[in-house]
Amino acid sequence: MSNMPNPLVAVCQMTSTSNKDKNFEAVSHLVAEAKRRNACIAFLPEACDYLADNKADAVSMAEPLDGITIKRYKELALKEDMWLSLGGVHEALPDKGKTQNSHIIINNKGEVVSTYRKIHLFDMENKDTGVRLMESDYVQKGGEIVTPVSSPIGRIGLSICYDMRFPELSICLRNMGAQILTFPSAFTYQTGAAHWEVLLRARAIESQCYVIAAAQVGTHNKKRVSWGHSMIIDPWGTIIAQCMEKQGVAVAEIDLDIIDKVRRNMPNEQHRRTDLYPAILPLKH
């Protein structure tokens, strides 16, 4: 048996604003703290680059993936000798009319090793409360489930925020070899209070993967407040590390043997009736 310790991961929580420089400064402090606590990879939330005050700015401030902001993140990964999960940056599109919400993994050499573009967009209009959040107004949805990326902590399956409400994606990623699922988020305060923990724990239990969910927290502007409560969950559904309601870092160990043990003792995949599911799933016309 190996005497090597299991790797440590850091889930990071921050309050992004429209100021890119201040956001990067906050990220730098979080990553440095993760490094100090011996994590080999830091998971950052959706909109870690910026959270604009309006949709027009969200589009106009976006950069291509070879732009200045991603270059700074690459340099940070190299400087700290750490892997980074940028849970959702605004990727500029050629026509400039919309952005894509892109989750990027950078290795400790400062290289982008995987990019996932959010496939489920959060469109919500509550006429009772007057709240309207339509991500599709300014974001173009992605069209691909990305193969899990090999990393020092295992094979990571990429997703973003609202994706967690669609268990099919988690099962697909598990079947593609994922051992860790990520749900970097900017969850609204109301939906976070109701659904954040229960959804994340359900995704861990049904996929039998670790779940790492970095989150935005607090007040970003006059219109946006995020729930926070970034967490790491093991394949049994137990929360093993958590931030609460302020910026910070939580660290936990990733033990891949636990995944094997859970899957062996609760062999869900052997019992899954994929032969019947097409007959009961509704067809889209």
From TrEMBL:
Return the PROSITE patterns for the record: CN_HYDROLASE, UPF0012
**Keywords on this record?**
Hydrolase
> Which InterPro entries does this entry report, sorted A to Z?
C-N_Hydrolase, C-N_Hydrolase_sf, Nit1/2_C-N_Hydrolase, UPF0012_CS
Please report the stretch or stretches of sequence annotated as the CN hydrolase domain: 7-256
User: What name appears for this protein in its UniProt entry?
Assistant: CN hydrolase domain-containing protein
Work out whether the entry's keyword set contains Hydrolase: yes
Which molecular function term from Gene Ontology is one that the record holds? hydrolase activity, acting on carbon-nitrogen (but not peptide) bonds, in linear amides
